[in-house]
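Exercise 3.2. Students should predict the tertiary structure of the chain below and write it as structure tokens, then compare their answer with the key that follows.

Predict this chain's 3D structure.
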Amino acid sequence: MSRPAIETTVDAGETRLLEHLPYEVDHGIAERAKVGLIVLATDYTIEHEWRQIFQNVPGVALYQSRILNEDVVTPETLRAMEPRITACTEVITPGTPLDVVAYGCTSASMAIGEERVFDHIRKAEPEAACTTPITAAFAAFEAFKAKRIGVLTPYSADVNRIVAKYIADRGYVVPVFGSFNEERDSIVSRITPDSIERGVREIVLHAEVDAVFVSCTSVRLVEACAQLEASLGIPLTSSNHAMAWHGLRLAGVEDRLPQLGSLFDLSFGES
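Answer key:
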């Protein structure tokens, strides 16, 4: 803003204080889009993986908040997050609307239900587009034109039942479903990338699938996704991978980033 500076003195005339210096404003780091992300308090992976992705899209700003949750993942602890979603959305960028808000929990999005998650987000950000990892996964399956989905999760059996049913109820066939059966989120974040790769390869060995989905935002896959996908010869995505892609596309960011995997070379419904 252009306005004349005002010179005054303080400290008995020893310091010159220049007030109302002229300045200019631009769009800040969010020239193209503002994306908000709600991160589980026990998630030590998603922020790292999203930064790896978002560094490839200049002008798109990522803003985060963290939601209180239990380290042990059960249907009950997942659903307990529901009443906290709106408050966590409100503190992402108070007073500044976001273009997209992403809720970073795959299994909770299914245990609570996507639309209920969106309703809570919209109480704080009524104009924002919304996504969750499973919402993004479904959009990815459509982009891949994939109907037979191999699924790999870290979850315990009771959570896996919710995941398998939720995907099947949307009309997809899940011919093979693998799990590490680890109920602690903080341990899931430490499962090695080599272990994830072996799990994905085991999925592919046991059934013919159109694509593989690695569920859970604590799982590390983004860095190895493109290379592993090329080795498998079929599309591959994960909760963090799919939701970052979906969030960017919802924000109108259509940058093609094939180095991140085939999904990032696609728009909605494109293959």
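Discussion points: The chain has a mean pLDDT of 95. The radius of gyration is 21 Å.
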